[in-house]
Design brief:
The complex is a heterodimer of chains A (about 160) and B (about 425). Helix content of chain A is about 40%, strand content about 20%. By secondary structure, chain A is α+β, with helices and mostly antiparallel strands. Chain B has 15 helices and 17 strands. The radius of gyration of chain B is 22 Å and the shape is globular. Classes of the chains: A alpha+beta (about 160), B alpha/beta (about 425). Chains A and B meet through loops of A and α13 of B.
């Protein structure tokens, strides 16, 4: 299992890079966050729409360009959190940040992560961690207060 | 202490101690590679192919040993005490200054200022010249500058309200000199440009450009960071007013660099930092500053670094410069041929006169994925914007992969680069 987790370019990552899920703009989004990593040239926009109750994520999509890791991470993020509650999304942000920075052992959270576990290999590539976290920081900003920044940047 | 006399004495001692020129060693690439111990290692199970020389060049044993020997035998602070070690260290430091002077053919050691590197040198000039400039005065840069020759001028623009004009380039990555005379009209105070582009490899015709600038009464600062590893530079032949370079990009240590400036220009510049060693006399009421170069060398300098830089110059001086240039140009031609054969690969920059630097994009493979996948095959390249975002904007690309070669690289390493690019395309296709 650990070998599989350690591999940066797993098939699931490559698939999501080739055919990203929810790769579209959203005209009626409640929150739109621009995220960029100027050092890499990665740039993406995350769109988020909430249910009427304001508790659930009704729709989540993204557009932009970046490396395979950042595109796959954004794709997996949108796929996983569509329909989730805001609280679940915030909790997953913390878990993913822990896994990607090596603070949390991915093996302990495989069940909670599902397909996202494929991103865990990035922790062995310190120079690439910011690629994987970019969309998650955009999510965090989108979930924040309405007056929160509408752009985030990782370097 | 009368620094001029000491510098003169040290220069004379250094010149007297210099070995008789025995002619360059025969060009033997295997022997040259053995001089660079770091090249002989495995990375991810493959032999290292170090193609990131524009970021920093590797160091020959002679440089590494010169620094270790200095610390082992001669270390003491320079220009301060009169004991034996201080004398040796001072002579080594001032001897290094003379070595640099001779290598770049400056008129006098007082035109050679030791600083941390190219970035600090350009900041010093922007800071010092800028004190005499008024709002609306103009500095002319080019589209292909490194951030180190952009941001210091933007800081000056914020402080003093100066204008920045940009000389354009063509698609091949060559300066468009047609518009230069217009940009040099008053109130232009300085033209600041790179000798060799760190992204495109373009070698700019500095002597011609300086000639045009001087006809308009405009002095020229040259960023030589990328030039020194590929050719011997003669500042008098270029006739430039300032020339800046870094030791670590020319096979010397990090932390040491050089600002060459014409004596009259340096003498007119105010100090850069205040501290020890840059003064003549200090009371609490007033201070009298030392003459250049000490005026710009406040505090304890990286004298061990200067010793290492001199060793790097000794090493380069012992190489056959003609053979070096032929080898590099042969590698460049071969690399262009191999990369042009890769489907979906786009080379950025095709200047007629180039150093062996190759920036490229490959369809379907982001530069950062390329960097990681090439590393898996032991091939070290740089990826990203290369601290030249305006140049990336010109070509409309967010990032490129850059292979930058040095004289110790081989055709086999070019083959391995091309094969590794194919591997990366295979993984991500």
């Amino acid at each position: 299992m650990s070998n599989e987790l350690d591999d940066l370019y797993q098939e699931i990552i490559l698939d999501h890079n080739r055919h990203p899920a929810n790769f579209r703009s959203m005209v009626d989004a409640h929150r739109t966050v621009e995220a960029d990593n100027p050092l890499c040239g990665d740039r993406l926009t995350l769109y988020l729409k909430l249910d009427d109750d304001g508790e659930h994520i009704a729709d989540l999509s993204f557009q932009g360009s970046g490396c395979a890791i950042s595109v796959a991470s954004a794709s997996l993020l949108t796929q996983r959190l569509k329909g989730a509650t805001v609280a679940e999304a915030e909790a997953l942000f913390e878990t993913m940040r822990g896994v990607l920075t090596g603070v949390i052992d991915a093996a302990d959270t495989t069940e909670a992560l599902g397909g996202l576990a494929a991103l865990a290999g990035v922790r062995r590539y310190p120079m690439r961690v910011k690629c994987a976290t970019l969309s998650w920081h955009a999510l965090k900003a989108a979930l924040g207060a309405e007056d929160a920044a509408d752009s985030v940047s990782t370097e | 202490m009368p620094c001029e006399e000491l510098m003169t004495l040290a220069a004379e001692i250094a010149a007297a101690d210099a070995p008789e020129p025995s002619g360059p060693r025969p060009w033997d690439l295997d022997a040259i590679r053995r001089d660079f111990p770091i090249l002989n290692q495995q990375v991810n199970g493959a032999p290292l192919a170090y193609l990131d020389n524009a970021a920093t060049a590797q160091k020959p044993t002679a440089v590494i040993e010169s620094i270790a020997d200095f610390y082992r035998h001669d270390n003491a602070n320079v220009h301060r005490a009169v004991h034996a070690l201080a004398e040796r260290a001072t002579l080594a430091y001032e001897g290094a200054r003379e070595r640099v002077r001779g290598w770049i053919n400056a008129r006098s050691v007082s035109e050679v200022v030791f600083l941390r590197g190219t970035t600090e040198a350009i900041n010093l000039i922007a800071h010092g010249l800028g004190q005499g400039w008024s709002a609306g005065d103009r500095v002319v840069l080019t589209q292909m500058e490194h951030h180190a020759n952009i941001v210091p001028w933007q800081l000056l623009r914020e402080r003093a309200g100066i204008d920045i004009a940009v000389l354009p380039i063509n698609d091949a990555g060559e300066l468009d000199l047609a518009g230069l005379p217009r940009l040099l009209a008053p109130p232009t105070r300085l033209l600041a440009l790179t000798h060799v582009s760190n992204v495109l490899g373009t070698v700019n015709p500095i002597a011609d450009i300086v000639h045009i600038a001087h006809e308009h009464g405009v002095p020229v600062l040259v960023d030589g960071a990328q030039a020194m590893a590929h050719q011997r530079v003669d500042v008098q032949a270029l006739d430039c007013d300032f020339y800046c370079f870094s030791g670590h990009k020319m096979f010397g240590p990090t932390g040491i660099g050089v600002l060459y400036g014409r004596q009259a220009h340096l003498a007119a510049l105010p100090p850069w930092q205040g501290g020890g060693e840059m003064i003549r006399r200090v009371t609490f009421e007033r201070v009298r500053f030392a003459d250049p170069p000490q005026r710009f060398e406040a505090g304890t300098q990286d004298f061990a670094g200067a010793v290492g830089l001199a060793a790097a110059i000794d090493y380069l001086d012992n190489l056959d410069q003609g053979a070096l240039a032929r080898h590099e140009q042969s590698l460049l031609r071969y690399a262009v041929e191999r990369l042009d054969a890769v489907p979906g690969l786009r080379l950025i920059g095709r200047a007629a006169h180039r150093a062996p630097v190759l920036s490229f994009l490959v369809d379907g493979v982001h530069a950062h994925d390329m960097g990681t996948l090439l590393d898996r095959k032991g091939v070290a390249v740089r990826t990203g914007h290369h601290c030249a975002m305006p140049l990336m904007d010109f070509y409309g690309v967010p990032a490129t992969t850059r292979a930058s070669l040095a004289f110790y690289n081989t055709r086999d390493e070019i083959d391995r680069l091309a094969d590794a690019i194919d591997y990366a395309r295979g993984v991500l296709a």
